[in-house]
Write a structure and sequence with these properties.
Helices cover 64% and strands 5% of the residues. It is mainly alpha-helical.
């Protein structure tokens, strides 16, 4: 790619960003859009819709940037929890690392690369290849390569120092967050699975007898999980019918409220649709009430139960000690928050969960292989010669300078971004099939899957192209193959940062799809009662940020031209997501910062990958001494990672006895603990067994469903 093609891509993406930012600044002020741009504030009652007109509404203004910038970390912690703080610390960490990398790369490495072989001048600069800004433009055996060698050591030291600082900082935040939190049900509760079946005794009786015998001083109560898949199906049907009924009532008129029954609506009298739906809803609720009664009285129990204790320390002891001689029985794990529980897989047997995991692994591998098809197609678009061979009928069009610049500089990354957007929801679906008991665990699992899928398919598969199999068959040549393949794809990844980074962030800000959906709802269905407050999709956003971090570290000394674009992405992302966390996203669960170990491990992987590429590139550049001196660096990085794993990771896996006992002692003088324990007994009741009453909201006077006391 030549410099003018890169500038074309910069111009297109910059124009799109300015357009999206301007539209957001105007659209967010319109009263009808408050449910799209500030749903969190509307749900919390902080902001109300106003219909007063003023001219300022039609003019863009940067006031939202100032409010997002002024949001303190303490305010963010109180509003969105520790996970949101960790998410924003990823941007802070990245800005710090790449600010240092940018200074070294742009002011030191880039001039050395550009001078390169032929002491390049600035004549005809727009038509120069981007390769002249990379390390490939430096003479083989040149002493200038020692600058790149020192830069690799320096950025490794800076990144490791900042990683250590952030790990320690977030660890302290996690402990402080625990100390400052109010008593939570999941802190006193564990999940027990693999309850052995005993003749003449229910699972509930077995749990009570077992824990009264072996944990008599700390055991409080338990709640056995029941088979409620049919109940969930009925509730889903009732919910759909209720929404349909509400929609019809909002549009009620003489033309749409009546229709004919019978075959094809031809032979029966006209009936009131609303009244017909209300009767169906009553019948459905009656069936639901009967099913809830059956579940409560004689419903099938699942060999799993939530067991509550009188103290956090008591729950921790029961969690960490093997309960039975047979390790497959009375298996314990930490209970999630009650609203975080994912109920469908409790009824799954051990064999079903095991088969599900195998199926998910196979499906993930198939998806990785299938995704290579758009990767290969995009690779063809980055090369005009290859594109002319694949699509010869476009040869005349490709001779137009602007068209060729758009196709090679902008279109490939746009197409790849489209296909990549389909991956996160698929991976989340896969994770939900693996038997996790909480939405947060599903999100973390999906985050891992999307991250490694992204690294493999967007980086390795694109860089190594057809030589992927050869790399595994001949691992000794990995450094040299990466040293050849990675610099060759620098131009694509630079444009990818702009398309998938800059433009993606601006579209995140404007929330195009929710805006369109809201307009359709308002002007077509006339239904504006529902308010959707989304939660931030960590499994989608964190892998994307970490991929950009990997690109920045690997291309830091190979092609430092990518660094300004990465700094632009992290700067924009820092403001955009602070704004979204302030106005849009509301947390649906809290992991206590457990996403940070993913960030740490991914960054260490990126550093080691950079160092392996450096070993290969110095070998290819006929500087064997530098290549040999790079070998200790990956080993030192792995030792650093092992120290961090021993020092900080246990804090994210469980709380210490010191912390638990200290927190329990604080609660001894709390007068509200008695009320808390009363609520704890019923905290883990399956939501499908709770009373619902759609009939009361429709204005009909029917008997309610089963009361909470009966279930």
């Amino acid at each position: 790619m030549i410099l003018s093609a890169l500038l074309t891509s910069v111009g297109i993406n910059l124009a799109l960003c300015i357009l999206f930012f301007t539209l957001y600044s105007i659209l967010r002020k319109q009263p009808g859009n408050v449910k799209v741009y500030v749903p969190r504030l509307v749900a919390e009652g902080i902001l109300r819709q106003s219909s007063d007109f003023n001219l300022e509404r039609l003019l863009p203004s940067p006031g939202w940037v100032k409010r997002a910038w002024q949001l303190s970390e303490e305010e963010l912690l109180s509003m969105s929890g520790l996970d949101a703080v960790v998410f924003m610390r990823i941007f802070i960490f990245s800005l710090r690392v790449f600010s240092v990398a940018g200074i070294i790369g742009i002011f030191i490495l880039l001039p050395i690369n550009f001078v390169g072989i032929n002491d390049s001048d600035f004549s005809d600069l727009p038509n120069k290849s981007l390769d002249q800004f990379s390390i490939s433009n430096v003479n083989d055996g040149s002493k200038r390569l020692w600058v790149h060698f020192c830069a690799a050591y320096l950025i490794t030291g800076v990144a490791c120092y900042l990683l250590y600082y952030e790990y320690g900082y977030i660890s302290s935040k996690r402990i402080a967050y625990f100390y400052s939190s109010k008593p939570q049900p999941h802190q006193f509760t564990i999940l027990v699975r693999g309850i052995p079946a005993t003749a003449g005794r229910s699972f509930s009786d077995s749990v009570e007898i077992f824990f009264l015998e072996y944990h008599s001083s700390t055991y409080l109560s338990h709640s056995v999980v029941r088979q409620t898949s049919k109940l969930r199906g009925l509730i889903l049907d009732a919910d759909k019918l209720y929404k349909r009924l509400t929609h019809l009532k909002s549009r009620r008129d003489s033309q749409q409220s009546f229709q004919r029954g019978g075959f094809l609506g031809l032979f029966s009298q006209r009936v009131d649709i609303v009244d017909n739906y209300e009767k169906k809803l009553v019948d459905l609720e009656e069936n639901l009430r009967i099913e809830q009664s059956d579940v409560s009285l004689r419903g099938e129990e699942v060999p799993a139960a939530f067991v509550c204790f009188k103290s956090r320390y008591g729950a921790a002891i029961a969690l960490r000690i093997q309960q039975s001689i047979n390790p497959t029985q009375w298996v314990t794990e930490q209970a999630p928050e009650p609203h975080d529980v994912y109920w469908p897989f409790f009824s799954a047997t051990f064999m079903r969960r095991w088969i599900s995991k195998v199926v998910v692994i196979v499906a993930t591998m198939v998806l990785i292989v299938v995704f290579l098809i758009p990767v290969v197609f995009v690779q063809g678009l980055t090369s005009l010669d290859m594109l002319e061979k694949l699509l010869p009928f476009l040869k005349s069009v490709l001779t137009i300078a602007f068209v060729s610049q758009v196709i090679t500089g902008y279109l490939p990354s746009l197409i790849l971004q489209f296909f990549l957007s389909l991956v996160p929801p698929v991976m989340k679906l896969f994770s939900s099939m693996q038997g996790y008991i909480s939405h947060s665990e599903i999100e973390k699992s999906a985050c891992y899957k999307v991250l490694w899928f992204t690294i493999w398919n967007i980086f390795f598969a694109y860089v190594l192209s057809g030589s992927v199999l050869n790399v595994f068959l001949d691992p000794k040549n990995i450094p040299s193959r990466l040293a050849v393949g990675v610099p060759a794809q620098a131009s694509f990844f630079i444009t990818y940062v702009m398309t998938s980074g800059w433009t993606s962030l601006s579209s995140e800000l404007t929330r195009v799809i929710p805006l369109i959906r809201d307009y359709i709802g308002r002007f077509c269905s006339k239904s504006t009662d529902e308010l959707e407050v989304p939660s931030i999709p960590y499994h989608q956003e964190i892998p994307k940020i970490l991929l950009f971090g990997l690109l920045g570290l690997t291309y830091f000394f190979l092609d430092p031209l990518i660094l300004p674009f990465l700094l632009g992405y992290f700067s924009i992302g820092y403001i955009v997501y602070r704004n979204q966390l302030l106005n849009v996203y509301s947390p649906k669960f809290e992991t206590g910062g457990k996403f940070w170990p993913i960030v740490h491990n991914s960054t260490v992987f990126s550093l080691i990958l950079m160092q392996i590429i450096a070993i290969g590139i110095f070998g290819l550049k006929k500087l064997p001494l530098a290549s040999s001196l790079m070998v200790p660096l990956p080993l030192l990085t792995l030792l650093f990672n092992e120290y961090c794993r021993k020092r900080f990771l246990p804090i994210f896996q469980r709380y210490s006895a010191e912390s638990l006992i200290k927190k329990d002692k604080q609660d001894q003088d709390d007068p509200t603990m008695g009320e808390f324990f009363d609520k704890l007994v019923t905290a883990y009741r399956d939501p499908s067994t709770l009373r619902i009453g759609y009939c009361q909201t429709t204005g009909r006077n029917y008997s309610p469903l089963l009361s909470a006391a009966d279930v």
